[in-house]
Amino acid sequence: MPIYEYRCASCDQRFEELVAASAAAPPCPGCGATDVTRVYSTFATEWMPSNVAWHRLPGKHDLPGGDTSKPSAFIKDKPSG
After folding, report:
1. pLDDT tens column, 25-58
2. Is the distance from CB of 6 to CB of 27 less than 8 angstroms?
3. Would you say 6 and 19 are in contact if contact means Cβ atoms under 8 Å apart?
4. Separation in Å, CA 3 to CA 8, 25, 48, 63
5. pLDDT for position 23
6. Residue 40 Rama label (left phi>0; alpha psi -120 to 50; beta)
7. In this predicted structure, what is the pLDDT of residue 80?
8. Chain centroid to CA 15: how far?
9. Contact 33/49 with Cβ under 8 angstroms?
């Protein structure tokens, strides 16, 4: 079961819950409201391809709104030879 991140519409509290993917959203632990929204959160991985310039990718706080908010990977040039 994955851990999902939620935001309560009533009290604006963010919380995490371990729930099945097909389960309904849990109530807010702060106020008990059922009007919660699942938010997209970052994830961790150990896989790091060597041909991506990770230092050039924007962080989640560096992204502007609108169409330009989708990060893209910058592929480093392969050495010749």
Report:
1. 899 999 999 999 999 877 777 776 677 676 666 6
2. no
3. no
4. 16, 12, 22, 24
5. 85
6. beta
7. 56
8. 13
9. no
